[in-house]
Amino acid sequence: MGDGSSALVEEIEATIKGAASGSRVLIIRLVVGKGISVSKMEIVSYLHDKFPGASIEIHDGKQSDAVVVKDIEVE
Question: Taking burial as the number of CB atoms within 10 A of a residue's CB, which of 1, 11, 28, 48 is the most buried?
Fold first, then answer.
């Protein structure tokens, strides 16, 4: 992953950890375009590494796609 996409997935990881630990978090809607080139599969792969016990799903929609993370355990 490139520099911008690395920072992006690290921020996603921090947001997920905050939500899983009961902290109040900001839910972000990402629009990946000109400035960032990262695929859904790269994000899913990264999240599988960071949250090995979690269920991670990709939902493809007509207007947008989503990556859903469930059953997260935070250390």
Answer: 1
- Count CA within 13 A, CB hemisphere, residue 17: 11
* Ordered per-residue pLDDT tens for the chain, 75 residues: 555 667 777 887 888 887 777 776 655 555 555 555 667 788 888 888 888 888 888 888 777 777 777 787 766
Residue for token pair 């900001």: 26
Q: What is the DSSP letter of 74?
A: -
Distance (Å, whole) CA 74 – CA 53: 10
Give 3-state DSSP helix, strand, coil % of the chain, rounded to 5.
40, 15, 45
Q: Can you give the pTM of this predicted structure?
A: 0.58
Task: Give a yes or no: residue 41 inside a domain.
Answer: yes
Q: How far apart are CA 28 and CA 51, in angstroms?
A: 19
